[in-house]
Task: structure prediction
Amino acid sequence: MSHAADICAQNVTARDAARVDFLMIAEMVAAGARVLDVGCGNGALLALLTHTRNVDARGIELSQRGVNEAVSRGLSVVQGNADTDLSYYPDNSFDYVILSQTLQATQRPKHVLEDMLRIGTHAIVSFPNFGHWRIRSQILFKGKMPVTENLSYSWHDTPNIHFCTIQDFVDMTRDIGATIERAVALDRFGKPMMVRAPWWLWNIFGEQAVFMLRRA
Amino acid sequence: MTAKIKRPIVTREADAPHSLTVEFPAHEPLKLDSGGEIAPLKLAYQTYGQLNAAKTNAVLICHALTGDQHVANVNPVTGKSGWWDIMVGPGKPIDTNIYFVICSNVIGGCMGSTGPASTNPATGKAYGLDLPVLTIRDMVRAQARLIDHLGIDQLFCVAGGSMGGMQVLQWAATYPERVFCALPVATAAKHSSQNIAFHEVGRQAVMADPDWRNGRYLDEDVAPIKGLAVARMAAHITYLSDDALQNKFGRELQNRQERTFSFDADFKIENYLRYQGASFVDRFDANSYLYVTRACDYFDLAADYGGSLAAAFKGTKTRFCVVSFSTDWLYPTSASRAIVHALNAAGASVSFVEIESDKGHDAFLLYEPDFIGTTHGFLTAAARARKITG
Result:
């Protein structure tokens, strides 16, 4: 197996576990909606949404292994790339376009987000917060690129090429003129943080965030 | 010297096949894209499994260029097992315990459906080149006649690889409401220039053989077997990957220690191709080869829809699963991706997998676990949605 394929395979395995952000996303999706999951891995989230929300589920996944597993479980998933293949989907063809824990692995995150908002009425994005205090402290005290439980790759051997903080993400939504409909930050125990907390607090204590956006 | 050969096999199967047949009388002609027609029309087909009471479990399998209707039974001509035995049968992905499986010989073929080797009732001689040139859409129209004859409104699935995959795409475009799910494998929505080029080499090899006799060879008990064998040899190379050839044959010599400094088959690959060519001519009609290759070359689904492939699938409710193989250079993954992009643009339900394989185009006929698993998963989910299974 090639090294790149190996990394993808690890991603698929990690995705198998029920993830907290999946539950948050599922809670945001209306029943019976048309959903496109970009970077859907082996289809765990799509299966969850089909099961609990009865959605019309579609997916795009880069790794062959993920696609094969998803199709084998009966999901409509195509092998493709978030950076290049979203352009083939027509405007307004989905109610929700989801990007869960994949933003940081795209070549052009802003472009991907713009495409998601073009294709879907809503875009839901979950991502690891690079502004979390444990990540900050690793750089500050160790002087090394952070490696944590959730971000377990070494800097030279990672699919994650575009990390951002919650504050960075909020800035980008403003750049592209998107409206934040909902936002949740999850602490290191996977618990949602206080809704009224200011961005800077989320930015320090949120380990990951889930945003739902729409065009302004 | 002319090639006196054992013609009976081809002529026997063309007129009296070891298959079920249905004949549509001359007053119900099959209208063709060329403006011509076939009348009467004869179709030879095989079925496996049982049609359920609701008639919802029929699977139509479309065969490839030189394939035939003997998908999952011993072939009456070659004595070999069915060409898609890995895929069709009890417990296989296309499970004959669940589905009613149909496969018919394409028109233009030589295994019992009307083709150039069939006897033209108007003359008492083989049609030869009197048969109009055919298209993939003509083949599909003929199959639709058979499905009507069997009393089936909607097929649960239409599946096929290579030229069979083209028929699958044509079915989904022409009769969207009659196809619940579609499985086009190792195929393309149009023939590329390179595809046409290889086919032209094959046709020229056949027509350059003096025993072709301007297509009237059956009248004279000869056949252009040398030309047809060369056509098959050239085509066979396109079915395999460079790696597959290298791994299987390399530069190994055939039953000899040294080069002979002659034009004998010194290399194993030469011997293999000669064998492939020689065995092919025993089972296939040369004129049929011209007709079926031409049908592929004329295939360009988008052209029938104003140049937009997405328009061919507009509003479709059919579920698609598109499959390609990583080392297939005849119908490469890029050709499958073009189909997938069009289906996405049409808002269709589509799955797409590229299966890693070193076997080239031929992989769709071979046991590839990921291919089997994907197909099984796709059909199982679709069968549940169609309420064929619980």
